[in-house]
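S1.2 Input.
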Amino acid sequence: MKWDDVFIGDLNFDFAIEIIVRTLIMFSMVLIVLRLSGKKGVRQLSLFEVAIIIGLGSAAGDPMFNKETSILQAVVVFVTIILLYRVITFFAGKSEFFESIVEGDPIYVIENGEFLLKESGDHTFAKDEFFSEMRQQSIAHVGQVKTAILETTGNISFYYYHDEEVGYGLPVQPKLYAKKLTVIDEPDVYACSYCARPSQLERGKNRCSRCKRHEWVLAINDKRLN
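S1.3 Output.
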């Protein structure tokens, strides 16, 4: 193996300068296009808009270092992608059905202090990531949340119970959640680790009345800290 071919290849000083110029131009074009889109951050992007950015990145990549690809070719791709974006957003603004197809729909994740389950019995989210989002909102357990909605942008909207309405719930702190039990040693209120339904359990092996699982975490009923 020739390491010069791996790391340097046929690169010379003149082409290195050209790569720098091309990169600055294409990177600036991507920033300008994203700025014109009106978005403030990645968390505000829908899947459709993420696909647009991937397309822009792909179009911008080749002209940065490929001699055979001119910047004008990339500009043509940019203009095509932006026109497509404008057309699709126009029709999405005119039709809720079309918008639903392109952007997707918000997903209810929690209702009445319990996780919603799909018909297949699978969750529609990564639980670890969702717990992280809850902790960042100072949520100690699922029982504090009346409704949680996963928006099409990836943001999560939480609606809380009033303090006097908070019941027992599945804790989201890692240390508490990690103490899972399949056999109950002491009678108490436990929450199903899968669907978060709280139940008063006796000693022995208990099955969740809702999802039929038998893995439990000791429930807590702390009020939410604002």
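S1.4 Remarks. Residues 119-124 have pLDDT under 50 and may be disordered.
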